[in-house]
Structure formats: structure tokens, C-alpha cells
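Structural prep section.
Before we set up the soaks we want a predicted structure of the protein with magnesium ion in place, mainly to decide which crystallisation condition to try first. Input record follows.
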Amino acid sequence: MTAERPPAERPAGRGSMTGASALIVLPTYNEAESIRGVLARIRVAVPEADVLIVDDASPDGTGAIADELAAADPGVRVLHRPEKDGLGSAYLAGFARALGEGYRFVVEIDADGSHDPAELPAMIALAESEPADLVIGSRWVPGGSVVNWPWLRRAISRGGNRYARGMLRSRVQDLTAGFRVYRTTALAGLDGTVVSSHGYCFQVELAWRIERTGGRIVEHPIAFVERATGRSKMHAGIVGEALWRVTAWGVSTRLGREPLPVGERV
Ligand SMILES: Nc1nc2c(ncn2[C@@H]2O[C@H](COP(=O)(O)OP(=O)(O)O)[C@@H](O)[C@H]2O)c(=O)[nH]1
Ligand SMILES: [Mg+2]
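Run finished without errors. Recording the C-alpha cells verbatim:
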């Protein structure tokens, strides 16, 4: 089901089977209007990186467009999954690929144009030079911003991040951000496990796991631009899940218990 060329066709070298050091994972669900533009911007910004589109049988035909794009570009592959299974699990599938194929860095980026791929060279360079286990494209550090968000959404994101930060005693300002560069070894070191939390909670959990295990996290200011086309897949249930899980983790930690249960394998 995947549109892939055999790795042997590409030069071996900088770690991965394809020679690229970074794998950019681009999860899509009904992003037919934006995927071409976002992919084009990624290829211009970081032409040396490989891209893995993870599409969950989008009813709007995003998967077919992805196949077309992959057929025209040897640096792009598609992982087709049979049904919508959430952002967290799409990323886990991409991370497993990055680990298995020996990439040094794996990138999370939305396919809706909210995250500017032009920031990626700076973010990957930071991961290299700090060196960092996780570089977060952050809205809530000096220099960061959100564009075209109503005050309520802004307040929920800011308030939610402040709450999670306090509850988890984290130093990260934007725990829910979905624009990230991970050092793959930091994902391999997470005890091999992660709970199957969704959306924002997945992002909070991964950052917190890395922080708790002594990993180095650096925040790089970005301007997050609200999507111009398509619809957000986030909903109140996902915000609610993040709230209760963060609360439960914070309480467990204070009671001296291990807060992060064993779940899906990375
Ligand atoms: N493969 C896959 N991608 C998803 C799923 N849910 C969301 N996405 C993608 O994940 C990214 C972030 O979702 P989005 O709806 O933009 O969330 P928001 O930015 O918080 O509003 C987008 O590229 C979506 O297409 C899913 O269930 N499966
Ligand atoms: Mg988005």
C-alpha cells in the first residue's frame, strides 16, 4: 500500500538508508487543498530531507494526490493507513519508520500551512548545535506569535499551556505545539512506549517524557498561521482529554507514582 522506492536506489551515507539525515512526517486527513503547496514549500526549504506523508484514507482524495506527488519526487513517500486513527498514531507510525531506517532527526509538521517550512533549517540546525533532543517551534516564547486566531482560541492555548506547565512542573512554554524536530535517539530512549493519547495530549506527553528523562528541549519562536483552507480536526474532546490526562499525571507525580503508563510501542 505504500508508494516507495527501494532504499537501495538512493546513496547510503549520513546514517539513514536513503542518505538523508532528517525524515519529515506529514500527517494528512482531508488536506487536498493544501498538501501540494505545503509539500512544495518543504522541498524548497529542506531539499536534502526526506518526506513521509501519512494519510488515513482521506475521503477528499488527499491520498491520491500524495501518490502523484511521490511518483514525481524520489524524496517523498506515502504511508496509506486504512482508516482515520488520529494524529498521535500517524506520528508514531512515522517515528517507527525514522527509527527503523536510521534517520537522525524526525520532524512533525501540519499539512495545512500553519507551520512555515522555512523555519526548518534553523530548527534542525539548533537540534544539531545545542545539541537538543527536541526543538519546538513555539508560539509562546518571546518572538513567537499566532496569526488569525480569535481571542478565545488564543486564551485556550495560552491557558492550557500555563496549566499543563504548572501541573507537570515543566519548563516548556508551548507544550501543545505540533511543529517539532526530534533527535530520533530521544524517541528510542523513551522506554519504547507511549500512551495512545491523541492530538494536543500526544504532543504534551512526548515533550514531558523527554524532559523527565533528562532530555534537552529548546524552543524556537515561530509565527503560527491559522489554516486558510480545510477544517481543523481538533475538537473539544481532544482538549478535554489533554486536560484530564495532564491533571492525572500531575496528581500521580505528586503522590510519588509513575504517571505515564505503558502503551503503544514507538
Ligand atoms: N493521518 C492523519 N492525520 C491527521 C489526523 N488528524 C489530523 N491530522 C493531520 O494533522 C495535522 C494537524 O491537524 P489540524 O486539524 O490542523 O489541527 P490544528 O492545527 O490543531 O487545528 C494536519 O495536517 C491534519 O491533516 C488523523 O487522524 N490522521
Ligand atoms: Mg493545523
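Observations: Residues 27-29, 31, 54-56, 84-87, 90, 110-112, 114, 178, 227, 232-234 surround guanosine-5'-diphosphate (ligand 1) (CB under 6 Å).
Flagged for discussion at group meeting.
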